[in-house]
Amino acid sequence: MVRNKITLNVLANITKKVNNGGYIAPSNNILIVFNGSNIDINSRIIEIKKLQEKNFRLSIGFSFMGERILNKDEIIKNLNPINVYGEEDIFNLENIVEKHPKLIMPNITMNTLSKVALGMIDSFSSTILWTYLYYGKDVYLDFNSVNNYLGETTENKVIKGLINNHIKTIKNMGALEIKDGNYMENILEENELVKGNSNKDLIMDKKTKGNFNEVITERDLLQFSKDTVLKLPKGTIITPLAKDRARELGIKIEMER
């Protein structure tokens, strides 16, 4: 038994070395974390099931309130996940992130949003989101539950400003926004367009810093400041989300002729 354990440890270490220091998880593994809001939750479940139809493999997690507000058993039955995580898995974050390169929060709440925006990480939901952002992993957030607390938007300008500021902060940390009806489109866009292009750098204008791939995604633009001018080679693909983010950040994109 001891001998077998030693052998397994050696093989594990060899695997890590072959993969440049870490296990390479299947790119189609996604972690779905449900927060404590049931606003339009059924439509979000439908969006998630569409991803399964595109061969994405799902694991799901529940925040403390998510387990109590949502019908956990029904969601598990509906999505048939690989793994199910909860508050007790807050001590297993490294393993969870390693197995799932992408994170989706289809019903993020103001509680989780504000905590992470302010650097307060004290629960499974806030800590897992912080960890994914910290390591630069793919994070997709649906802000519908935040913008429609109790099923409707607020007319309170101060509250609305607070919500928008927290959303802006999370986006600047690297999170990408997804909306009802666009889950599959947004995630496939980020997942498929960059395939096969990661070894070719673009010729950049002297005003810019860093390297891009032949496909420019929303995440690529986060390293640039306002009023930056990006001159890109002819033929560069710019995703719709990247164009929206460029306008939001005041980044001007020019294509070389």
Which SSEs are present, and which pair or pack?
Layout: H1 2-18, E1 29-34, H2 41-53, E2 57-62, H3 64-69, H4 72-79, E3 84-85, H5 93-99, E4 102-105, H6 110-117, H7 124-134, E5 138-141, H8 144-147, H9 157-173, E6 176-177, H10 183-192, E7 215-216, E8 229-232, E9 237-238, H11 240-249, E10 252-255
Parallel strand pairs: 1-2, 1-4, 2-3, 4-5, 5-6, 7-9, 8-10
Helix pairs in contact: 6-7, 6-9
Description of the structure:
This protein has a 6-stranded parallel sheet with strand order 3-2-1-4-5-6, sandwiched between helices. It has a two-stranded parallel sheet with strand order 7-9. Strands 8-10 form a two-stranded parallel sheet. The relative contact order is 0.11. Helix content is 43%, strand content 14%. It contains 11 helices and 10 strands. The N terminus is likely disordered. The protein folds into 2 domains: 180 residues, Rossmann fold (3-Layer(aba) Sandwich), CATH 3.40.50; 59 residues, no CATH class. With 257 residues, the chain is of the alpha/beta class.
CATH H-tier superfamily of the largest domain: Flavin prenyltransferase-like
**Helix and strand run:** HEHEHHEHEHHEHHEHEEEHE
Number of domains: 2
Helix content: 40-55%
Total E-strand runs = 10
Query: Which CATH architecture of the largest domain would you pick?
Result: 3-Layer(aba) Sandwich
